[in-house]
Design goal:
Layout (H helix, E strand, L loop, with lengths): L2 H27 L1 H31 L7 H31 L2 H6 L6 H35 L5 H12 L1 H17 L4 H33 L2 H9 L10 H14 L3 H38 L12 H9 L5 H15 L2 H26 L4 H26 L3 H5 L3 H5 L5 H31 L3 H28 L8 H6 L1 H21 L1 H12 L14 H26 L3
Helix pairs in contact: 1-2, 2-5, 3-5, 3-7, 3-9, 3-10, 3-14, 5-6, 5-11, 6-10, 6-11, 7-11, 8-9, 10-11, 12-13, 13-18, 14-15, 14-18, 15-18, 15-19, 15-21, 15-22, 18-19, 18-23, 19-21, 19-23, 21-23
InterPro entries: ABC_tran_2
Keywords: Membrane, Transmembrane, Transmembrane helix
Pfam families: ABC_tran_2
Length: 570
């Protein structure tokens, strides 16, 4: 048997062993995490299904053909957007697993081939990044099938199209990651600055054109304007793009066309995806070890770390702290901004939310009814709150655990452990409050919500941001894991699962107490056709309760975490 076959068999056995061990450990000690993940996925899928079915029914009520140009354009845009998200997320995960993982460093010291290591990490990255794609994409397509009355053969074809589609953007991002790490000049800042400037200018021009077309589509409310808006996304409708292959194949299956019309797009998706993977594996065989050596050896020259503008801004934002604590806050911020695997994911989240805010502007230009504005604003508030919960759980909760065995170094500083936790809380609260208030208040102003509604939502997101910061820092110190160096494993562990569930419950309760009563009053006022714009007293009754809950969620975990970390010996 050849060496290649031996290595393939070894890696297959390793993957099977890791899967069995992980499943057994999960069933023995992590059933709560398993059930919570499954329940969350089901809830998200049902919500996406309901919203998608409502949208397709609205298209049907307006006598738009469910298997024609407009739906095809929407599918092109959907798959193109999901493909770009897969491209970015897979590239970020691959960078972290190929060039910043201790496991990859160990595997490169073994006789394992570089392309075999790459294939193993590629499968993990694609599986992880495509989970959200399946949870989001499958309910949309099922809702389309239910509302459009497609043949039964449409449904078994959905997994084949979706699984084939994730290969191409994943392989493309892997190839780009390898080429970038191998051939990018060592002084990457200038190159990235120029590339980023060009990308921002091009994006601005495109957004201006899309804004003009979307304004016409929303305000005129006719078919030609809507087709003109969809035409702005001509790249997604190009016959050579995989998103268009997906649309052609699925619409052919929905219409009940011949097998040839269905299988040719499916074959294009799978064949090009597999070819792109082989091309990336070939590049990994030639470039991976060299790129890894180049990355790890780039610190040969002495680096002089000077002050950064962003660091000074962060220090100014926490001016109310003493000097040693401000230094620790800047240290955490500097560690965060130097790790692309962290800030790139946050940048992706921020981009998605900014895209949503841009869409809200089009709603406001369409002069929505008051009830519609309140519904859209509540969805926006809930979305930002959940994103804050996920982001803080991913980035803030592992901070104490990641100090690990190096925690004793902090003990040499003229600062107490309590001040360390206060600094991490200030770092988390400052960032989350800035992001949350900007997204929520900005979108409410674009919607034209009443001043009372803007104030209530601002208080709600402020309470959620500060409370989640206290929960993540406090529980991270109360239940640390100093044996683990991978933040993703800390997050998905038992303590991370408890923190995530607690944070979600906190978000649900605070939104229900502080924001939902106002929206319920708006709905009642709309259906009862009341002219008064004043809200009843019970709308404001939950505000002090929610604020009190936010204080409790901040103070109690921080006190428990401080007491716990004081007892730890390093």
């Amino acid at each position: 048997m050849s060496l290649a076959l031996d290595q393939a068999a070894v890696f297959r056995r390793l993957r099977a062993r890791l899967f069995r061990n992980g499943l057994s450990v999960l069933m023995e000690t992590g059933r709560v995490k398993l059930y919570s993940m499954a329940a969350t996925s089901v809830i998200v899928a049902l919500l996406v299904f309901g919203l998608s079915a409502f949208g397709f029914l609205e298209l049907s009520k307006n006598n738009l053909p469910m298997k024609g140009f407009i739906v095809g354009g929407l599918f092109d845009l959907l798959f193109f957007t999901l493909g770009v998200m897969l491209l970015m997320s897979t590239g970020i995960i691959l960078y972290a697993s190929l060039f910043a993982s201790p496991e990859s460093r160990f595997l490169l010291t073994t006789p394992a081939r570089a392309d075999r290591i790459f294939a193993t990490k590629f499968i993990d990255a694609v599986s992880f990044s495509s989970w959200g794609f399946v949870v989001m994409g499958l309910p949309i397509l099922v809702a389309y099938g239910v509302t459009a009355g497609v043949p039964l053969a449409f449904y078994p074809l959905l997994p084949l199209f979706l699984l084939g589609y994730v290969l191409l953007p994943g392989a493309a991002s892997a190839l780009a990651c390898l080429l970038f790490m191998r051939y990018m000049p060592r002084n990457r800042r200038q190159v990235l600055t120029v590339a980023g400037t060009v990308a921002v200018v091009a994006l601005g021009v495109w957004l201006y054109r899309v804004s003009a077309a979307s304004k016409a589509a929303v305000t005129t409310n006719n078919r030609d304007a809507l087709e003109g808006f969809i035409g702005q996304f001509s790249l997604a409708r190009n016959p050579i793009t995989p998103s268009h292959w997906m649309t052609n194949g699925l619409l052919a299956a929905a219409r009940g066309d011949s097998a040839r019309e269905i299988l040719i797009p499916l074959a294009l998706i799978w064949s090009n995806g597999l070819f792109a993977f082989l091309l990336a594996a070939f590049a990994a065989r030639r470039l991976y070890r060299t790129a890894f050596d180049r990355t790890t050896g780039s610190g040969g020259r002495k680096k002089v770390y000077r002050g950064n503008v962003l660091d000074r801004v962060m220090e100014w934002l926490v001016f109310y702290l003493d000097k040693p604590t401000r230094i620790l806050v800047v240290k955490d911020f500097r560690t965060f901004r130097r790790d692309p695997s962290q800030w790139a994911i946050l940048l992706l989240f921020a981009g998605l939310m900014l895209l949503g805010v841009r869409n809200f502007r089009q709603f406001s230009q369409a002069e929505l009814d008051g009830i519609d504005k309140y519904i859209v604003s509540l969805v926006n508030l809930a979305g930002v709150s959940v994103l804050l919960c996920a982001g803080l759980s991913r980035f803030i909760f592992p901070l104490i655990s990641l100090e690990g065995r190096k925690f004793w170094i902090l003990g040499l500083m003229p600062i107490s452990r309590r001040q360390i936790l206060v600094g991490k809380f200030a770092f988390a609260a400052t960032g989350s409050v800035a992001i949350g208030l900007t997204l929520v208040v900005g979108s409410e102003l674009l919607l034209g919500l009443s001043p009372v509604g803007v104030l209530v939502h601002a208080l709600t997101i402020l309470t959620i941001a500060v409370g989640l910061s206290g929960l993540n820092v406090g529980l991270g110190a109360y239940m640390p894991n100093f044996r683990e160096t991978d933040p993703s494993k800390i997050v998905v562990g038992f303590s991370g699962t408890v923190n995530m569930i607690t944070g979600l419950l906190f978000v649900v309760v605070v939104v229900a107490l502080m924001a939902v009563p106002m929206h319920a009053a708006a709905v009642l006022r709309h259906f009862n056709k009341l002219q008064s714009r004043d809200f009843p007293w019970w709308v404001y009754a939950g505000l002090p309760i929610g604020l009190t809950l936010g204080v409790v969620a901040t103070v109690l975990p921080l006190r428990a975490g401080t007491a716990s970390i004081q007892r730890v010996e390093f």
